[in-house]
Specification:
- By secondary structure, this protein is of the alpha+beta class.
- The protein has two domains: 281 residues, ATPase, nucleotide binding domain (Nucleotidyltransferase, domain 5, 2-Layer Sandwich); 104 residues, ATPase, nucleotide binding domain (Nucleotidyltransferase, domain 5).
- It is built from 19 helices and 21 strands.
- Bound molecules: D-xylulose (XUL).
- The site of D-xylulose has 11 residues, from helix 14.
Length: 487
């Protein structure tokens, strides 16, 4: 029997855009088993690219719900074939891509509660969805619904104060409104609407699992302070929506025992608990073990920044979600579209296509870059909404170019000052003292320490504290060139 066969553990699932993945974590928080199914490669019959269908309008982006169900079937079968001992699993939980939604057809609940252990889920749930292609987070087709929702809530800022974000096309309330308007029959034939996360939890529970506060904050429907659905927002999106959503729960809530389907088909213990699933970004905050005052930056195609906040200031940019670890606190998320690709471009132009050269350029210039500041928005930026490259010398005069080494430092410093500036805009304060008495941090103490990729150089605080107001002023200058002066 395989070495992983009989270890008490919890299973963590990830229903992401491109794959379904599972990890088994033992009592010392060691990951000792992993399995996954990639949609494009392993389920080619659904014809997805990157796990999605991009429709002809270029704005609508969906994924087939049965592809997600079948992916779960395949992962479970692979685990079984490898000798995985399901009877040792104490609990299952997980994460899902945020904002995506699943529409369960009238009667689906009946099917979910009476699954036959002889058949895979995909076969039994075939007729359970009123919408077979689910809107996902990459969809941007709901601008009209967004404007309507903001108007109903008293404006974008008022909606942001209430729900943590102004109206965003991918946020689920706006997606539901579009479905209600364009396909009213399918909407009225829907008995339950899940997020991808609560949908996945429902599959394990064998009944509808509630939406959790954290992922629920990505819908433009949840009042992030009171943790209840906003009647104004529900009313602006679609009728009878509250009953289709069910009441939300804390992200750490145990929602029930695993369905007997898994007990009979795979040998799970009947007492195995299902803990509410949440969104992938909230799950990352928990996984990275962030605490109050911490900030985490993910450098990808887009850069994402996560912050643990106690007193958020919801704004017109970025998102404030309920914190998955401590429901009294919050998580701020900022997305910067000009991330890796822009860094690579500047590396190619100013550092001979070499990261070694790029690092040398950084070492050869001083912190603060002699007062030179740059903005590198090769594609329309999300935070802030501006475009183009803008360079300013120490006197604040716009210049057309920098020496190569100065260019490299201006890019890196500019990208990171933007992160600090906009995180502060959402209520983050550099230098906060970490919170005490946090049970989650106690629990995860056992896990290997996350590896810090870098630490600030001595003197950095003084240099950038002084430079930040100048950066903010120049950013305003660029924005007023794009948008015209403020009213
Ligand atoms: C966050 C967002 C994405 C998805 C990716 O608001 O839309 O990060 O969660 O899965």
């Amino acid at each position: 029997m395989a070495e992983h066969a009989s270890r008490r553990c919890c299973l963590g699932w990830d229903f992401s855009t491109q794959q379904v993945k599972v990890v088994a974590v033992d009592a010392d928080l060691n990951v000792f088993y992993e399995e996954s199914v990639r949609f494009d490669r392993d389920l080619p019959e659904f014809g997805t690219r990157g796990g999605v269908h991009i429709h002809k309008d270029g704005l609508t982006v969906t994924s087939p719900v049965l592809m997600w169900v079948q992916a779960l079937d395949i992962v479970l079968e692979k685990m079984k074939a490898s000798g995985f001992d399901f009877s040792q699993v104490l609990a299952v939980s997980g994460a899902g891509q945020q904002h995506g939604s699943v529409f369960w057809k009238a009667g689906a609940s009946q099917v979910l509660t009476s699954l036959s252990p002889d058949l895979p889920l995909g076969q039994q749930l075939q007729a359970c969805f009123s919408i077979t292609d689910c809107p996902v987070w990459m969809d941007s087709s709901t601008t009209a619904q967004c404007r309507r929702l903001e108007a109903a809530a008293g404006g974008a800022q008022a909606l942001s104060r209430l729900t943590g974000s102004r109206a965003y096309e991918r946020f689920t309330g706006n997606q539901i409104a579009k479905i209600y308007q364009q396909n009213p029959e399918a909407y009225s034939n829907t008995e339950r609407i899940s997020l991808v996360s609560s949908f996945a939890a429902s599959l394990f529970l064998g009944s509808y699992s509630p939406v959790d506060y954290s992922d629920g904050s990505g819908m433009n429907l949840l009042q992030i302070h009171d943790k209840v659905w906003s009647q104004v927002c529900l009313g602006a999106c679609a009728p009878r929506l509250e009953e289709k959503l069910g009441p939300p729960v804390p992200s750490c809530a145990a929602v029930g025992a695993i369905s007997s389907y898994y007990v009979w088909r795979y040998g799970f213990h009947p007492g195995c608990q299902v803990v509410a699933f949440t969104g992938d970004n909230p799950a990352s905050l928990a996984g990275m073990r962030l605490e109050e005052g911490d900030i985490a930056v993910s450098l990808g195609t887009s850069d994402t920044l996560f912050v643990w906040l106690r007193e958020p200031v919801p704004a017109l940019e970025g998102h404030v979600f309920c914190n998955p670890v401590d429901p009294q606190h919050f998580l701020a998320l900022l997305c910067f579209k000009n991330g890796s690709l822009t860094r690579e471009k500047v590396r190619d132009e100013s550092a001979s296509c070499s990261w070694g050269e790029f690092s040398r350029a950084l070492r050869s210039t001083q912190m603060g870059n002699g007062g030179n500041l740059g903005f590198y928005f090769d594609v329309m930026e999300i935070t802030p909404e501006a475009t183009g490259r803008h360079r300013f010398n120490a006197e604040g005069h716009e210049v057309s170019a920098f020496p190569r080494d100065v260019e490299v430092r201006a890019l890196v410093e500019g990208q990171f000052m933007a992160k600090r500036l906009h995180a502060e805009g959402l209520g983050y304060r550099v230098g906060l003292v970490a919170g005490t008495n946090m049970p989650f941090s106690e629990v995860v103490k056992l896990a290997p320490n996350p590896r810090l990729a870098a630490t600030p150089a001595p003197g950095a605080a003084q240099v950038y504290e002084a430079l930040l107001p100048k950066y903010a002023k120049l950013e305003q200058r660029i924005l007023s060139q794009v948008q015209g002066p403020p009213e």
